[in-house]
Design a protein that fits this description.
heterodimer, A: 158 residues, mainly alpha, 6 helices, B: 149 residues, 75% helix
């Protein structure tokens, strides 16, 4: 196999890890939100989200690093519209994902402490889970990753 | 280098195919994670985790798999009309997705029966998901690197 084929494989692997990780976190987050669950169940679901974190991290590194290498290998210009847009979306999505990650970690910790204190329903936990601003940041960063996938396929400006 | 000269009409089915594949990967991993978490613990914990495992496999994995497989046929029809001269990497996709579909059906049925905390088949669901993940990894290697092309 050529260098191009290996690079494409690792770039696509990065995309699978990144989007797959986002899907895992999204499903588990949604499961915690759509139904009024006791704090112990929310803590369990948020605890399971930790399996998505390394996938998202490795995916972010592979998509950008191997993606830039592919641009060089194929001979595209780094200034092409779709490449610039993809990098901007990658940076914004990563920044929003980082903000969201910190917020979700605190929500998980709150659920854990509530579970240890008797597992009674909490308005504070419910408010944190359904905070519209946090949901926009969370799902917005995920949608940006899907938008990058679209850019990779349509390549506007080529 | 095919991506450089791909006709515009292939973009939508390719996007939906890759989207379906990544959703399938994410949903299968979620089924595995929830399934393993639901194997042990008290009755209440295993009951809701197994119920969630079933709903994720039925409500998310099945539609994602159908999207991936359906759009694979759509783009195949555009790229290799009439099924002529299909390269080996295309056959790898079939070799994974056809038994994969059977695996998904078995997984959903077992996940349904596993909802009871007494069920003994619950342990099979996450292992089947893990097998499907291994198959998906083989397919995405063949689809992306296209060895032999």
């Amino acid at each position: 196999m050529s260098l191009y084929q290996w690079l494409l494989f690792f770039h696509v692997t990065g995309a699978f890890f990144l989007i797959g990780g986002i899907v895992i976190a999204g499903i588990l987050n949604l499961a915690a939100i759509v139904k009024d669950r006791p704090p112990s169940q929310v803590a369990t679901l948020y605890g399971l989200i930790r399996f998505a974190v390394p996938l998202i991290g490795v995916g972010l590194v592979l998509t950008l690093a191997i993606g830039l290498w592919l641009v060089h290998n194929v001979g595209y210009s780094y200034g092409q519209t779709w490449i610039v847009l993809a990098i901007v979306l990658w940076v914004v999505a990563s920044a929003l994902g980082n903000i969201d990650g910190k917020y979700q970690r605190r929500t998980g910790e709150l659920a854990q402490s509530l579970a240890a204190e008797g597992d009674a329903p909490s308005t504070e936990l419910r408010a944190r889970l359904r905070n519209p601003r946090a949901l926009v940041i969370s799902y917005g960063s995920g949608l940006m990753a899907f938008a990058v996938l679209g850019l990779m396929i349509w390549k506007p400006g080529v | 280098m095919l991506a450089l000269v791909r006709p515009d009409s292939w973009n939508l089915p390719l996007f939906l195919h890759v989207l379906g594949a990544t959703l399938t990967f994410g949903a299968t991993t979620t089924v595995a994670v929830l399934g393993f978490a639901g194997v042990q613990g008290d009755r209440e914990r295993t009951a809701w985790l197994r119920s969630l495992t079933f709903w994720v496999s039925f409500g998310i994995l099945v539609p994602a798999f159908i999207l991936m497989r359906g759009t694979a046929l759509w783009i195949l029809d555009k790229e290799f009309p009439g099924g002529h001269n299909e390269p080996g990497w295309v056959n790898v996709g079939f070799a994974v997705s056809e038994p994969g579909a059977l695996l998904v059906i078995v997984m959903v049925i077992l996940a349904w029966f596993s909802r009871s905390p007494k069920s003994r088949v619950a342990v099979a669901v996450p292992w089947l998901a893990a097998i499907l993940l291994a198959g998906l990894a083989v397919a995405w290697f063949a689809m992306s690197a296209k060895p032999g092309a």
